[in-house]
């Protein structure tokens, strides 16, 4: 309990420090492009609640769909590569040739093939996460000692029981770590995709405020988008705490 309180206090201290630095820079610049923290918070509380919820909801839905798609495909391919030498030999060159490609550079290609609608936005998030999940799951499963499976075999465990009790926990551990690391990049890519072909989403909200030169509202949108990322990061931590107790 004390650790949690200390962690919260550290977060609050850092948040206060960031606001202090922001205010000092605001005083030094004295320019409309950087409003004061107070004016941004005031603009945030004056936003239309329905509009904010709608934009946040669209962004969260796109993130959820992209992450879910990446998990389904990445877990399947990672399991095949981790447990089957044949599949690993076939798919390993494909993964390593395509993994280094900067996924943000594929944004124009994805939009050409799938248009400016929801599909391209979800696919970009999926591409950001997919290859990291594949490699992490494969390596995580390969790191499980074969003796662990031998013990379960000796007591008559079925393949399904081995999967649920050994393979999946080993894969889930690295999946959560990968999502935690990649989530920030995925949200950044979502911002770029929401600039085009949509009237909903936090990316659209921020750019719309920028075009109207409403800088307090623009910064309020950035802070709300950051809050979405922070909440998602906490959610991953909660999942890790709930399902990875065996690591502690």
Automatic annotation (TrEMBL):
It is found in: Cell membrane. It comes from the Bacteria. Belongs to the binding-protein-dependent transport system permease family. Keywords: Cell membrane, Membrane, Transmembrane, Transmembrane helix, Transport. Its main location: membrane. Residues 56-236 form the ABC transmembrane type-1 domain. CDD domains: TM_PBP2 (cd06261). GO terms for cellular component: plasma membrane. GO terms for biological process: transmembrane transport. It is a multi-pass membrane protein. This is NitT/TauT family transport system permease protein. The chain crosses the membrane at residues 7-29, 63-82, 94-116, 122-141, 171-198, 218-239. The keyword Transmembrane applies. SUPFAM superfamilies: MetI-like. It comes from Paenibacillus typhae.
């Amino acid at each position: 309990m004390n650790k949690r309180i200390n962690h919260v206090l550290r977060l609050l201290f850092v948040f206060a420090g960031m606001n202090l630095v922001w205010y000092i820079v605001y005083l030094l610049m004295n320019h409309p492009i950087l409003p004061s923290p107070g004016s941004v918070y005031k603009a945030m509380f004056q936003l239309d609640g329905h509009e904010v919820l709608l934009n946040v909801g669209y962004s969260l839905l796109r993130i959820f769909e992209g992450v879910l798609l990446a998990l389904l495909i990445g877990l399947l391919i990672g399991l095949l590569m981790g447990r089957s030498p044949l599949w690993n030999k076939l798919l390993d060159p494909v993964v390593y040739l395509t993994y280094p490609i900067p996924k943000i550079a594929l944004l124009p290609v994805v939009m050409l093939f799938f248009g400016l609608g929801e599909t391209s936005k979800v696919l970009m998030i999926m591409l950001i996460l997919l290859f990291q999940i594949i490699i992490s799951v494969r390596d995580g499963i390969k790191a499980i000692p074969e003796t662990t499976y031998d013990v379960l075999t000796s007591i008559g465990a079925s393949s399904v029981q081995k999967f649920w009790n050994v393979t999946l926990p080993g894969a889930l551990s690295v999946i959560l770590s990968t999502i935690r690391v990649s989530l920030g990049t995925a949200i950044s890519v979502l911002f770029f995709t929401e600039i085009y072909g949509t009237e909903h989403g936090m990316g659209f909200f921020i750019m719309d405020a920028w075009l109207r030169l409403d800088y307090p509202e623009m910064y309020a949108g950035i802070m709300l988008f950051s809050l979405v990322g922070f909440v998602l990061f906490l959610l991953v931590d909660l999942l890790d705490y709930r399902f990875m107790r065996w690591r502690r």
